[in-house]
Structures are given as C-alpha cells and as structure tokens.
Amino acid sequence: MSTRHIRRSAALVATAFALPVALGVAAPAFADSHQADPYGPACASVPKEGSGSLASMAKDPVATAASNNPALSTLVTAVKKAGLVDTLNNAKDITVFAPTNEAFAKIPKADLDKILADKAELTKILTYHVVGEKITPQQLSMGSFKTLEGGSLTTAGAGESFTVNGKAKIVCGDIETANATVNIIDTVLTPM
User: Which one is predicted more confidently, 46 or 102?
Assistant: First the structure.
C-alpha cells in the first residue's frame, strides 16, 4: 500500500467522521422554525414546573399531556369515553384544538351528558378537533384544514389572536407535545 493511498484513505475516514459531527452541530439551525413560546392569556395558568407544565407536556404524547393539565379534564374524560387515547397518543405530527373545561360548560348539562353517552357522536365531535398535520401560528392567519372527522375547519387572526370557525378563540396556542401541537380553545367546535 503506497503512502499516497494511505493518506487518501485517512482523509476519507476523517471526512466520514467529520461530516456527521458537522451536521449534528448544524442541525439546530435547521430545526422546525416555528418553535416559539406558547401564546395567549390562558398560558399564564399552565403550571410552571412539574406535571402539566409546558416542559412536562413536551415529553408526553398529546392525550397523556392533556391528562396532566387540570383545565382539560373534561376533554380527557370525553377522549377516554370515546376510546381515542391510543389513537391520539400514537398519531404523528397532528394539531389538536383542545376545548377547556369552561368550553364544555357552555353546553347545557343535559346535552353534554347525551353527547358523552353516544360514543359515535362523541367520536365525531372529538375527531373534528384534530388536524392530521402540525399547524404553525403563521398558517393560522387564514387557514382551512381537513380534520380527522373528515370535515374542515377554518382559522383566522394575527399575532397572538386567532379564532377557529369564526367563534372559538385560541386562549393558549402552540403548545408542543411529543407528537402534536395543541391550541387550547374556549368553545367546543361543531362539525359542519
């Protein structure tokens, strides 16, 4: 083996090791560009640390993350009754428009009890709140998105003020979980 061949082989080996290291160092610059802080008035009520905090939610899949947030307990109960926990936790890169407990409280109790008792109707309503892609705040300004239920929902707004279907307000948006982006809303959406 010649000296020239050894130098060339050594240079190739060095390049083979240096390239992944260089890419690894460069990777954060190419990371998802919408990694902004969550926004909205209800974000102040999210725990600062521990279970239910933004850092904790980022580590868990969406249904598990929601179960640790006290403001979403009615939604979590509905998701469990519909049998959607595994479906949501195993989905990849989705966006969930998550109604607060107060959003569910706007529905008369008799009507809510009827919906919670009807698994097919409950599933239809809940899957209408899920879009099969991650949506950035920029896309919310004038968006139309197909839901897992099969219908579509529209979003509008700017800055930190967005509405869904012209009536539900995003009260804490762009929360990252392990598999989803969550936008907490103040009204339960109705499939069109």
Answer: 102
